[in-house]
Amino acid sequence: MKSPRPGGTENISVSMPSELLGALRTRTGKRGVSAYVAAAVRHQLAMDGLAEIVAAYEAEHEPLSEAEIQAAQHELFGDAPAPYASGNSAA
């Protein structure tokens, strides 16, 4: 394994379907792929953490009500449609 690069980054190898990589390169250009993937991973880690918080809360209390979910969505997104609204209480 190579030593970490200056600035706290490392090179890794990731496999993904060709059509997904094509769409990614179309959107970002060849040089923007790393930044886009890093942002996507950062976002997914945040969503995973939020799901863990919700699961821990629901395990200790009770499942969030639809009203509580809608209030949280309104707090986060205002009147815009919540981007992940799916009817379940986990993020």
**Total number of beta strands:** 0
What fraction strand? under 5%
Shape: elongated
**How many H/I helical runs?**
3
Overall pLDDT: 87
Q: C-alpha Rg, in Å?
A: 18 Å
- Between the first and last Cα atoms, what is the distance in angstroms? 35 Å
- What does the main sheet amount to? none
Element-level helix/strand string = HHH
Q: Decide which structural class fits the backbone.
A: mainly alpha
Helix content: 55-70%
**Unreliable runs:** none
Topology:
Blueprint (H helix, E strand, L loop, with lengths): L17 H11 L4 H28 L5 H12 L14
Structural summary, described in words:
- The structure is a single chain.
- The protein is an all-alpha fold and 91 residues long.
- The chain has a domain at 34-91.
- 56% of the residues lie in helices and 0% in strands.
- The chain contains three helices and no strands.
- The mean pLDDT is 87.
Could you give a short description of this structure?
With 91 residues, this protein is mostly helical. Helix content is 56%, strand content 0%.
Features:
mainly alpha; single chain; 91 residues; 56% helix
